[in-house]
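Per-record layout

source: Pseudaminobacter soli
name: DUF2231 domain-containing protein
length: 138
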Amino acid sequence: MVAVSDPAPVRSLHPLHAILLAFPFPLFLGALVSDITYWNTFQVQWANFSSWLIAGGLLGGGFAMLWALIDLLRFRTGRTFLYFIVLLAVWVLGFVNALVHAKDAWAIMPESLYLSLVTTLLALVAAWIGYSGFRSWR
């Protein structure tokens, strides 16, 4: 029988960081769903819902990104760098999406739908990277 060991233990997220990371994906997903609903119904209230959901996703994502930056400065691994870059991309595209949603409701389609889709997918990737754990020091 051979004992196999992992060269570096897996470091999980801090519990508060995990809570902050739990906000962007569902909020951006809700914005995507409300954009799809607006696309199908053209009732302006769905665009307003989407704007508020994006603002919440930006708030939670901004704090998670700040925590990821601190982790990047502390640990300096490739995976923490990738995690920070994906969170930064989520936040930047979410901010652009918020600016698009600030226009008149009739003028936001179809670009708001596409931005919501890309932002949601990137938020899913960031959550996947974050919750799957990080390798500790080499």
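summary: The chain is about 75% helix and 5% strand. The chain has one domain: 14-135.
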